[in-house]
Input
Amino acid sequence: MAIKVYKPTTPGRRKSSVDAFDDITKTEPEKSLVKIIKIKSGRNNQGKITVRHKGGGVKRYYRVVDFKRVAKLDEEAEVTAIEYDPNRGPRVALIEYADGTKSYILCPQGLKVGDKVMSSKNKIEATTAARMPLENIPVGLLIYSIEVSPGKGGQLARGAGVGAQLLGIEGKYAQIKLPSGEIRSILKSNMASVGTVGNADYRLIRWGKAGRKRLMGVRPTVKGKNMNPCDHPHGGGEGHSPIGQKRGPQNIYGKTALGVKTRNKKKWTGKLIIQKRTKKRK
Output
């Protein structure tokens, strides 16, 4: 993928860049692998807003991505197209098996049309996009779409350009270094795919103006210090006042925010974390 920058014909265009879509080989999605997403605008079944700053956005189909890849074990499939997915950063690859069955998978870095991919419970060649249990993957390789619970499908390392590293196998667990820097133990029988997720330049796109975010379904966010005291703990004061005599930033409900660890210390998976994450959340 490449990033395209246009001449600054407008103020919004001056600060923005766009995806070049050079790697896309098919523009229309596979009809049998799409479904409609109902836009809920951050509201629950009572119509109350439970997630702020959501609403609008363009209509788009959801591509049904196969994160498990267990329906056709030990059967080779051919990559027939690389497609754009409006619901995620990476591309999706359309693969077709010998019997005509088609499915979408996350497209890793380096996967091209005509390549062969396979998923197996046994040890197979560790080529790009090959999927197998962690115990069968050579130590040191980069992996993505990692299962947390057996049979649940890939949940970790699915974002554009990311990849985890298999550090070793010990007992019934495998040690994985995640993109955040966290090192955790995962059952060695869990499945993972070999490689790193493609479209790594996605994070370099500059959206440039609020209108492009509105098309993505993101509504404006107002700072708490711009509100009244009745609307936010940071509100009130003359002009653009600071947050006042508080121990730190708070959210709209008065709960401490920004840089505060929210993970439950009593969560049972805490014992599987060998080293905590080192990268800060953006």
Summary: The mean pLDDT is 93.
